[in-house]
Design goal:
single chain; alpha/beta; five-stranded mixed β-sheet; 11 helices; 10 strands; about 20% strand; globular; binds adenosine-5'-triphosphate; binds magnesium ion; binds fe (iii) ion; ATPase_NBD; tRNA N6-adenosine threonylcarbamoyltransferase; DNA-binding; DNA binding
Length: about 350
């Protein structure tokens, strides 16, 4: 089974060919980070226009690089949501047109299911398993009783963790996307500013990062007012320690409570070295099998969309040519129907 997958939900245009949901034959990514940097964040209008410029050529190139012909394709998959509506529409129109022209089935795919199934590109998954999704727009603990069956047991009540990283980075003077800068500073720092941990109710798997972000902004503003040095690296380390402690503790508690066989880490913040190190250390101590995809499959890419779409391919659950972009799209609703 060869799935051609298209991802345009945010600021990466990506097209991939994935064999049997796990073997990546090609995975082209055109990042717009440099374009959006000047604006301090993603500008939706600009993102859509860039996707239009890139997607058609990338479709051809992805198939060519995979070493197959258009007629060898089994299906066309596309990220249906969640994401920016204008950006999603570009991918949906491209995939729908190709599906019509080639007379191949179309598979509407969920972006976060893609982030989770990026793990399938590097490991065999054993169910039940637990996924910790940490990205620019999402922070979730997702329980999977069986393949393609998603239950969101915890989510952020305010900022996503990547969003908090980007805002903290901006406050201490770093450009978008700021996560990697904060990560680097945190690991170099000799001291850490003392910042709160937000646990919410004792039994909750939910997260909240806006209070922590405000605490950082307060420290920065007070130091500025007093004319003191900001001590960016101590702030970065304090922030990262708080984030990592809460994420790791809740993820491990969830694995235990749900008797999950594996913990899957995914999303752009999975690139964070502080998070990876601490999660690896604690999972080793606790005897939990941890899977983390390589960096190229953590940030937005179409290979992960091909991996998730394969779940629907196996069940023959295809979309019609009236497939709609879904800026808000429930992961649970995308679960593969039992047949
Ligand atoms: P979503 O998948 O929720 O729609 P997204 O696709 O925009 O959001 P990703 O591309 O998965 O998000 O991740 C981007 C985020 O990851 C940014 O907020 C960026 O700052 C963050 N990030 C990248 N590298 C690191 C790092 N080393 N440490 C912390 N954060 C990081
Ligand atoms: Mg992105
Ligand atoms: Fe993403």
């Amino acid at each position: 089974c060869y799935i051609l997958a298209v991802e345009t939900s945010c600021d990466e245009t990506s097209v991939a060919v994935v064999k049997d949901g796990k073997e990546v034959l090609s995975n082209l990514i055109a990042s717009q980070v440099e374009t959006h940097k000047a604006f301090g964040g993603v500008v939706p209008e600009v993102a859509s226009r860039k996707h239009v410029e890139n997607v058609t050529l990338m479709l051809e190139e992805a198939v060519r690089k995979a070493g197959i012909g258009l007629n060898d394709l089994s299906a066309i998959a596309v990220t249906q949501g969640p994401g920016l509506v204008g950006a999603l529409l570009v991918g949906v129109v491209a995939a729908t047109s190709l599906s019509l022209a080639l007379n191949k089935p179309l598979i509407g795919t969920h972006h976060i299911a893609g982030h989770i199934y990026a793990n399938r590109l590097v490991a065999n998954l054993e169910y039940p398993c637990m996924a910790l999704v940490v990205s620019g727009g999402h922070t979730e603990l997702v329980y999977m009783k069986s393949e393609g069956n998603f239950e969101v047991i915890g989510r952020t009540r305010d900022d996503a963790v990547g969003e908090a990283y980007d805002k903290v980075a901006r406050a201490i003077g770093f450009p978008y996307p700021g996560g990697p800068h904060v990560d680097r500073l945190a690991l170099e720092a000799e001291e850490a500013v003392d910042l709160p941990r937000v646990w919410l109710e004792p039994d909750s798997y939910d997260f909240s990062f806006s209070g922590l972000k405000s605490a950082v902004l307060n420290v920065v503003n007070q130091r500025k007012m007093r004319g003191e040095p900001i001590l960016e690296s101590a702030i970065a380390r304090g922030f990262q320690e708080s984030v990592v402690e809460v994420l790791v503790t809740k993820a491990i508690r969830a694995v235990r409570a749900y008797e999950a066989k594996q913990l899957l880490l995914c999303g752009g913040v999975a690139a964070n070295r502080g998070l990876r190190q601490e999660l690896e250390r604690q999972c080793r101590e606790e005897g939990i099998e941890l899977i983390i995809p390589p960096f190229e499959y953590c940030t937005d890419n179409a290979a992960m969309i091909g991996a998730a779409a394969y779940l629907k391919w196996k069940k023959g659950q295809f979309a019609g040519l009236d497939l709609k972009a879904m800026p808000q799209f429930s992961l649970e609703a995308w679960s593969v129907q039992e047949s």
